[in-house]
TrEMBL record:
<dbReference type="GO" id="GO:0005886">
    <property type="term" value="C:plasma membrane"/>
</dbReference>
<dbReference type="Pfam" id="PF00989">
    <property type="entry name" value="PAS"/>
</dbReference>
<keyword id="KW-0597">Phosphoprotein</keyword>
<keyword id="KW-0067">ATP-binding</keyword>
<feature type="transmembrane region" description="Helical">
    <location>
        <begin position="39"/>
        <end position="61"/>
    </location>
</feature>
<dbReference type="Pfam" id="PF14689">
    <property type="entry name" value="SPOB_a"/>
</dbReference>
<dbReference type="GO" id="GO:0000155">
    <property type="term" value="F:phosphorelay sensor kinase activity"/>
</dbReference>
<keyword id="KW-1133">Transmembrane helix</keyword>
<dbReference type="InterPro" id="IPR000014">
    <property type="entry name" value="PAS"/>
</dbReference>
<protein>
    <submittedName>
        <fullName>Sensor histidine kinase</fullName>
    </submittedName>
</protein>
<dbReference type="GO" id="GO:0005524">
    <property type="term" value="F:ATP binding"/>
</dbReference>
<dbReference type="InterPro" id="IPR039506">
    <property type="entry name" value="SPOB_a"/>
</dbReference>
<dbReference type="InterPro" id="IPR035965">
    <property type="entry name" value="PAS-like_dom_sf"/>
</dbReference>
<dbReference type="InterPro" id="IPR029151">
    <property type="entry name" value="Sensor-like_sf"/>
</dbReference>
<dbReference type="InterPro" id="IPR013767">
    <property type="entry name" value="PAS_fold"/>
</dbReference>
<feature type="transmembrane region" description="Helical">
    <location>
        <begin position="202"/>
        <end position="221"/>
    </location>
</feature>
<keyword id="KW-1003">Cell membrane</keyword>
Length: 454
C-alpha cells in the first residue's frame, strides 16, 4: 500500500491553519488566552487550592497527633508522681491537705522537672493535696474521680490553669490500696509551639508537591498543544463545524480511515451508497462490515488507481483513495465515493438512441439503393423484373417486423431489434429471432434490457 508523500499531504500546515482561522471567525468565538496558558492557569489554581486544603488537613492531623502525644506524656507524668514513695505513704497515712506539706513539696518537684503546668494529688474524698495555686489546696474538685476503675485516663482539661493536655493515674498506698488520684497537665501553649515548629516542614512538602504539579501541568499543556497541532479551542470548534457542514453537505460519499485502517468518519452519502450506518461501522475495519469483493478491495487500497469503477447491486460507483498526512505525520486515508449510476444510465440511453439513428440511416440508405435499382429496371424497360423486385422488397421487412412484434410485447424493444436487423443487413449479416423468444408488454428492468440488447 502506498505511503503518503508530499503529494498526499492533503492537509498542509498553512492551508489547515487558514481553514481553522476562518472557521473560528465564522462561528464567532472570541480569541482569548492560548490553550496551553488556559490549561496551565487552571491546573495551577487546582494545585494551589488542593495544596492549601491538603496543607490545612495535614496541619490539623499533625495537631491531633501532637495532642495525643502530649496527653500520653501527661499520663506518664501523672504515673511518675503516683509512683513516688513519699506521696504514696503520706496519702495512705491520711496526711492533712495543707500548703507546704510533703505531698505538695514532692508534687511541685515533679511538676518543675517535667515542665507540666500542674501536678495535682487528690484523695478519695476529692480533696486537693497539691496544686500550683496554694489557695486551692484543701478544696474539693468539682468533677468526680475517673481512676476508680484502676486505669489511667487522658484527655483535654480546661481547669483553673487553662486549657491543657491532661493525664490521670490511680494512686495506691504502700499496702496496694487505692488512696487517690494524680492529675497532671501540659499547657496548650506547648502543643501550639510544637505545631508551629512542624509547619515549615509541612510547608516544604506542600511546596514540593506544588512544584511537581506545576511542572507536570507544563508538560501536559505542551503535550496537548502537540496533539492538537497548536490549535486553540475556538479553532477546534470552528474546524468541527466546518467538517460537519462539509461532510454532510456534499453529494459525494466520504470515508476516513485512521492509521490502523479503522473507520473514523463516514458521511450520510457514503452510508446510502454502501448500505452502511455510522453506528455499524464507526471504529470497525472494512473486513468486518463488507464482504470480500472488488468494492472492499478498492476501499482498502488493495486495488490501486484513480477513478476506479465499482458496480454494486444498485449503484455504479467511482472510488478514489488518498493518504492524509500533516507535518510529516501519517494520519490515515480518505476515500471518496461518487455515484455515477444516473450518468451511466443516460450514457446507455444515448448509445441506444445512437443505435436507432444508425438504424434509420441504414434504412434510408437501403431504401435509396432499392429506389435506384427499381428506377434502373424501369429505365431499361424490364417491367416484369421491376414488379417482381418491388413485390419482394415490399414484403420482406414488414414480415420480419410483424414476426418480431408477435413475440416481443414492448414497442421500444421491437423497434430496437428491427433497427439492429436493418444495420446487420446493411453489413451483410442476417439477424434471426429465435422461435422461443418471448417478452411481455411491461418487462422488468427495461433500461438494463435495452442496454444489453443494444
Amino acid at each position: 500500500m502506498a505511503r503518503p508523500g508530499r503529494s498526499g499531504d492533503v492537509l498542509g500546515a498553512s492551508r489547515a491553519r487558514g481553514w481553522l482561522h476562518s472557521g473560528a471567525a465564522r462561528v464567532g468565538y472570541p480569541r482569548g488566552r492560548r490553550l496551553s496558558g488556559r490549561i496551565l492557569v487552571a491546573q495551577l489554581v487546582i494545585l494551589v487550592v488542593t495544596g492549601a486544603i491538603g496543607f490545612t488537613l495535614l496541619g490539623l492531623a499533625q495537631r491531633a497527633e501532637l495532642d495525643r502525644a502530649f496527653e500520653e506524656r501527661a499520663v506518664a507524668i501523672a504515673s511518675t508522681a503516683a509512683a513516688e514513695p513519699q506521696i504514696r505513704q503520706a496519702m495512705e497515712q491520711g496526711a492533712p491537705a495543707v500548703p507546704g506539706g510533703v505531698v505538695q513539696t514532692v508534687a511541685e518537684r515533679v511538676r518543675a522537672a517535667s515542665g507540666a503546668s500542674y501536678v495535682v494529688v487528690i484523695d478519695l474524698n476529692r480533696i486537693r493535696h497539691s496544686h500550683p495555686d496554694a489557695a486551692l489546696i484543701g478544696q474539693q474538685v468539682a468533677e468526680p474521680l475517673v481512676v476508680l476503675d484502676g486505669r489511667t485516663h487522658a484527655g483535654i482539661d480546661t481547669g483553673s490553669t487553662g486549657r491543657s493536655a491532661n493525664g490521670r493515674a490511680p494512686l495506691y498506698g504502700p499496702s496496694g490500696r487505692l488512696v487517690g488520684e494524680v492529675s497532671a497537665g501540659i499547657p496548650e501553649t506547648q502543643v501550639t509551639s510544637e505545631v508551629w515548629r512542624e509547619l515549615p516542614t509541612l510547608g516544604l512538602y506542600a511546596g514540593l508537591a506544588l512544584a511537581i504539579g506545576l511542572a507536570t501541568s507544563v508538560l501536559l499543556a505542551r503535550r496537548l498543544k502537540k496533539i492538537t497541532f497548536g490549535l486553540e479551542l475556538e479553532e477546534i470548534a470552528g474546524l468541527l463545524q466546518d467538517r460537519e457542514a462539509m461532510l454532510h453537505g456534499i453529494r459525494e460519499g466520504v470515508i476516513a480511515f485512521d492509521p490502523r485502517e479503522r473507520i473514523s468518519v463516514i458521511n450520510k452519502e457514503a452510508e446510502r451508497l454502501l448500505g452502511l450506518t455510522d453506528q455499524q461501522v464507526r471504529g470497525a475495519r472494512l473486513d468486518d462490515v463488507l464482504p470480500d469483493g472488488r468494492l472492499r478491495r478498492v476501499l482498502t487500497g488493495t486495488i490501486t488507481g484513480n477513478d476506479l469503477t465499482v458496480l454494486t447491486d444498485d449503484h455504479c460507483l467511482v472510488v478514489n483513495r488518498m493518504p492524509v498526512a500533516l507535518h510529516g505525520r501519517e494520519l490515515g486515508w480518505v476515500v471518496t465515493v461518487r455515484d455515477r449510476t444516473e450518468l451511466v444510465g443516460m450514457m446507455r440511453e444515448l448509445d441506444s438512441m445512437r443505435g436507432l439513428t444508425d438504424a434509420l440511416r441504414a434504412q434510408q440508405h437501403e431504401f435509396s439503393n432499392r429506389m435506384h435499382t427499381l428506377a434502373g429496371l424501369l429505365e431499361l424497360g424490364d417491367y416484369d423484373s421491376a414488379l417482381d423486385y418491388a413485390v419482394d422488397t415490399a414484403g420482406a421487412e414488414p414480415a420480419f417486423a410483424e414476426s418480431v412484434r408477435a413475440r416481443i410485447g414492448h414497442a421500444l424493444v421491437v423497434g430496437l431489434i428491427v433497427a439492429k436487423a436493418t444495420v446487420a443487413g446493411e453489413r451483410g449479416v442476417r439477424l434471426v429471432l429465435a422461435e422461443q423468444s418471448r417478452l411481455s408488454e411491461q418487462p422488468p428492468h427495461l433500461r438494463r434490457l435495452l442496454t444489453i440488447v443494444g
